[in-house]
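Fold this sequence, please.
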Amino acid sequence: MANEPKHPTDQGQQPESVPGQDSDILTTSQGAPVSDTDHSLKTGERGPTLLQDHHLREKIMHFDHERIPERVVHARGAGAHGFFTSYGNAEELTRADFLKPGRTTRVFVRFSTVVGSRGSMDTARDTRGFATKFYTDEGIFDLVGNNMPVFFIQDGIKFPDLVHAAKPHPDREIPQAQSAHDTFWDFVSLHTPAQAHVMWQMSDRAIPRSYRMMEGFGVHTFRMVNALGRSSLVKFHWKPKLGVHSLVWEESQLAGGADADFHRRDLAEAIDAGALPEWELGVQIFEDDGTSSFEGIDLLDPTKFVPEELAPVQPLGKMVLDRNPENYFAQTEQVAFHPGHLVPGIDITDDPLLQARLFSYLDTQLTRLGGPNFAQIPVNQPQAPVNDMFRDGLHQHRVPEGIAPYKPNSLDGGCPYMAQLGSGQLPPLEFPQPIDAGRKERSEPASFSDHYSQARLFYLSLSGVERAHVQQSYTFELGKCTDVQVRQRQVDCLANIDTGLAAGVARALGLPAPAAQELGEPERSPALSQIGKSWPVDGRKIGVVFDRENHDDVLAIRSALSERGMAPMLVSARGGEIAGGVAIDRTYLTARSIEFDALVLVGPLPPAPDAEAPLDAKAGDAASDGDLVDPRAGLLINEAYRHCKAIICLPGESSGLLRAVGLPDEAPGVSVVEVSAVADSAARLLSTHRAWERFPAAR
């Protein structure tokens, strides 16, 4: 080490040009600076070496593969390009450059389901991935999270067990993209740490209306370090501008058949239409006092979340998605995320699930992307300069120069140089966290043994409508299990969460209700409920249903809805254009209720075509006179009504359309207004997403 060439700037010289790569300091493949490539990260002077040492694993992994398919999970995804703008309020929290004032950073985001294959449907009941790649000036930062803040398991060693249980049965490869089968419920009823996440998955959170209306979470607790070296613990949150909204169960099933690409299409069409999806990135902040706990909640347990009422989310910046991928395979399919892709000022913690992910993601890319050079794929390339000294391997596109890809060296002038510490350059990526040497063992802390209280907290924080949906979900899923013991065991687990929930599911399944438990009454967390708030209506799709022969009011309605930021779509019996060359977007044959957040009925509508009408139907009579409306239009209206969506009618013949299809014309969420008031009425009704009070008895 004493003879190793010094950095030229230490002697007042300008650095030489760098052979083959474009950084004058050593970096990881993601562009993060490396200050030491001679020592692995250990617990103290004598080890053992830590699995979290990303530079060690990346360096050896690349060497191991210098001689040179579908994701196992998260196979079905949708991606988009965008940008993140910092609010500039994080300097006390972290030295991360992309969070400094005035910084705008390019991003790529991939949303996905977890269990299904690439050919499965978007709207299956499932957890969803929410992964964001920040192309910062200090290298890649990947925030790899989900749309739920908790996970099924506490230790990464259980991940193969979880995925094997959730995937289709290995004998018949069915059912696809579903958890409603024996192996999944066998596992989670026996591995009770999964109960908290399963409660989220049985809620409406598992069937989001849109990726644009989906919350995101980093799941784990991370560490942030400021310029003075002070550490804080944080949990990441993505808050959607449009609020958190879901499909109803029947909608999700209809979408699976009518439009398996429902979420992908919605995201792409919203961006094309200029209704750009937005999220705020925020963090919950906890003191790094060495306990890794907060208000009795173990922050290193990934099956636990911290209610926002106890630790408010501090916004750090805003993300906008403004461009669809140019090529699905090149970008959305080949993008490679990794929770170890960090930047100075953000570090990982000792969460045992996160620690295992640091190995798993890197290992996965080798198989999926064909070798160790996946960072050279354009969508994965860092914006920061890179000089990692890696050579060769499958899919090597760079042409390195120089003859000394090792350290120390003199033949390439000592290049690349170590990142210098304490001289105005970057501090090390890893926070010097004190470690209790202890003994090496396979165990877990006692605080990990509480498997039910947070499931109970989540369930009791929901509205009555949402709790009813949870009970229906458990009933449906367990009803698909053929093993009665599996059903009964899961119902017994529910008795540890809520006696009423367990009794309701047992009754519906024809099982004996478990004995009532003496359960504590946790504090509710109102932030967990999706119902009861008011939200923007930007980009909400409104089906304007009309007879193309009677379209005098349609253009005015279309224009007014567009001016309010909604997305009107014209629906009629036949396609083509109306006055002014305006195209009809959907016909009764190509439209289905799942596509629309609300309907505007502009009557009268034509009756059923002669070929489909009953023999005694009077073709040409007005629908409002009681004859059958085209059954496809009737289906559209009935489904929207049944799914508690807003329905807006014009006075006169339009208002009679509901009666014509067998529905009451006075009900919650149904509005009869003049043409000039349609847009205001739609915005008001849609701001709460649905008219849940339409069916109070069913709740």
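The radius of gyration is 28 Å. The chain is about 25% helix and 15% strand.
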